[in-house]
């Protein structure tokens, strides 16, 4: 299942996690660390969506291949076209999440 667009009213009563809610105090989420370490961003415009999608992909697939990550990111657009490092970051973040 890929991420999908939904109306805000469809999230009524749901638990919503934003990029600001990922870190625990000063400790970044493993996917945030992976994006920093693998240069998974350029201007940063798409980064919150890419990180949250990366976490969702890791939760669905464990440690997914680059091919699976690319398929799952279909629809997540990076106007800087930094997909190579985004995919590397998600691979690393998923491995870190699996080890945690
Ligand atoms: S890093 Fe600029 S839009 Fe993705």
Provide a compact summary of the structure:
This protein is mainly alpha-helical and 100 residues long. Helix content is 47%, strand content 0%. Helix 1 (30-37) packs antiparallel against helix 4 and helix 2 packs across helix 4.
Explain the overall architecture.
Helix content is 47%, strand content 0%. The chain has helices at 30-37, 47-61, 66-72, 83-99. The chain is built from four helices and no strands. The protein has 100 residues and is an all-alpha fold. 28% of the residues are buried. The chain binds FE2/S2 (inorganic) cluster (FES). The site of FE2/S2 (inorganic) cluster has 11 residues, from loops. Residues 41-47, 78-80, 82 line the site of FE2/S2 (inorganic) cluster (FES).
Fold topology:
Elements: H1 30-37, H2 47-61, H3 66-72, H4 83-99
Bound molecules: FE2/S2 (inorganic) cluster (FES).
The site of FE2/S2 (inorganic) cluster has 11 residues, from loops.
What overall geometry do the principal axes of the alpha carbons give?
globular
CATH architecture: Orthogonal Bundle
Provide the residue-averaged pLDDT: 93
Helix content: 40-55%
As for the CATH topology, it is DNA polymerase, domain 1
The Cα radius of gyration reads 13 Å
Using DSSP, what is the number of strands?
A: 0
Helix and strand sequence: HHHH
């Amino acid at each position: 299942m890929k991420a999908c667009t939904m109306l805000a009213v469809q999230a009524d009563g749901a638990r919503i996690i934003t990029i600001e809610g990922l870190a625990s105090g000063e400790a970044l989420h493993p996917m945030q660390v992976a994006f920093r370490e693998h240069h998974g961003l350029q201007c940063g415009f798409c980064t919150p969506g890419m990180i949250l999608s990366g976490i969702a992909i890791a939760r669905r697939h464990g440690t997914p291949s680059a091919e699976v990550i690319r398929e799952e990111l279909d629809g997540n657009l990076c106007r800087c076209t930094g997909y190579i490092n985004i995919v590397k970051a998600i691979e690393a973040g998923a491995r870190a999440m699996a080890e945690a």
